[in-house]
Every structure is written in C-alpha cells, then in structure tokens.
C-alpha cells in the first residue's frame, strides 16, 4: 500500500491548548476540548478551535526526556508503516512533539476524526445481528493479515489490539447500517506500537507504567506487564479479548454467536493454528480483565488526589470519571 494521507496540524494551537489544559475538565480548558472516548490508559479528544476541529487527538505526557520521546516517535512511525505493509487501512494521521512551558516533553497522536457511529463498539448497537457477526468476521480477516505476516518470517513480529472500538467501518450509514463480507475496515489504535525485531520489543515496556501510580508500578511490573504485552502477539488471546469485551460494550447477547463465528473462521485457516475458543474461557478472561482495570482506574484517581490536594502538583493525565462494565 502507498503512503497514507496526513492531517494538517497547527503546532502553535497545540502549544496554546497544552498551556491552558485542565486535565480534570478538558472542556473547561482555555482552548476547549470535546472528549471523544476513553481508553483504559489514554483519552481521545477533539480540540475545538481552528484547523484542529475534526481531528481526534491522543495526548501522551509520559516521556521524561526529548530523546525518549524521539525514540517513541520513530517506533510509532515504523509501526504505522508495518501495519500498512501487511494490508491494514489507517486513517489520515500525523503527530506532534514538543516541550511544554515547564520543559516537559509531550507527544500528540492526531488522526482524522471518523464518524462516531462507524466505530465498531457503536456500530454493533446499530447493525442487525447477522451483520454484527459479519463485522466480527471482517475483524478476524484483518487480524489474520497481521498473523500471516508474523508466521511468514521470524525477524519481525507485530502485536495488535483487535477490540471492536479500534475499528471503523468505512462509508457507514447509521440510517441504513450494514456490514457485508467486503466492507472495508480502518484500524485506528496505533498509539501502542507493538512489534518485536529479532525477539526484542521495540517499544520500551516501561512506558506502559508511566501513567500508573508510583505505588503500583512495581506490582504491575512484577505481575502484569509481560502478560499484558504478550497477549497482543497471540491471535487466540486477541480474539478472546475482542469477544470478552462485548460484556463491557453491553452486548453479552452476541458472545455465543461470536464464539461460534470465531471458531468457524479459524477452523478454516489451519495455518494460523488458533485453538478453539470456549465460553468459559471468555467469561473468566473478562472477569479477571475487568477487575484489573477497575482497580487500576481507582488507584489512578487516588494518585490524582495525592498530586493535586496533598502535593499541590499538577496531575497530567485525563481520566474518565466512570467506565461502564
């Protein structure tokens, strides 16, 4: 595939936004922002001014030095290139890196904002049941492109988060929602550039812990970090994660049929060597995953209180007040 289109970025406007950002209430910042969605670690928002309108921004204030941020930027660019190489479609995108007024590095990932209804976790509430299952099958087909590449050689291995919210259905019409076997999908979650070269993770895994409370980071490093990273290189676990996330997306009714769809699809792709998925496995996976992320968010809110009320320091991260599970 050729080079993807880029987006126009107003660096001075970004600096102005960063200068007046209220992480607790982004909509009340000097340059207002509208929240588009919350992930488990980061927040996506639109800066409602000038040429930044219509762009989805993800802010990463996790870097300690400009050199560290530059290494991340190179890894991010290479990840985008690799995803295109294996055949995934990405939205027009770009990034900006600078230091704020206090000298702290901050990195913005910026993509063309896609229609909300086209995002997979929203589309599954609009699509007829059979076409919601067709959407899942399309996701499995896109995931297979990555794992066929991984199995075709040993030097480069790409990881991917396949959850429904990370895909957009191209040309989606919410008034006439459809998803067929040829519906193009666009992959949007590129901010965690996971790929290994000769077995070595190219993204510094410690960056995953930067937004975690300091009193939790040693525990996460010891018990969870390797497992969380490894899951995105295992197609079976990526598929289980996608299906289990239907609990969070309030569509548990789809889970039995999604399991059947996944098992039927992967049974027809024996070269991918994906073991059958069971209902018990999906239920156990989600229960454990939800507990971990619920505790993680609660501890981040404790950390925010410690920063802002006791230490009188700025807390740089934007947190959701509540995540429905």
Ordered list of secondary-structure elements with their pairings:
Elements: H1 11-19, E1 33-38, E2 43-47, E3 55-60, H2 66-86, E4 93-99, E5 105-112, H3 120-123, H4 129-152, E6 156-158, E7 167-169, E8 185-187, E9 195-197, E10 200-201, H5 214-223, H6 225-231, H7 235-248, H8 255-267, H9 279-310
Helix pairs in contact: 4-8, 7-8, 7-9
What labels would you give this structure?
325 residues; alpha+beta; Phosphorylase Kinase, domain 1; 5-stranded antiparallel beta sheet; 3-stranded antiparallel beta sheet; 14% strand
Describe the structure.
By secondary structure, this protein is of the alpha+beta class. The chain has a domain at 11-112: Phosphorylase Kinase, domain 1. The chain contains 9 helices and 10 strands. The strands form 3 sheets. It has a 5-stranded antiparallel beta sheet, with helices on both faces. Strands 6-9-10 form a 3-stranded antiparallel beta sheet. Helix 4 (129-152) runs parallel beside helix 8, helix 7 packs antiparallel against helix 8 and helix 7 crosses helix 9 (279-310). The chain is globular. The model has no long low-confidence stretch (mean pLDDT 89).
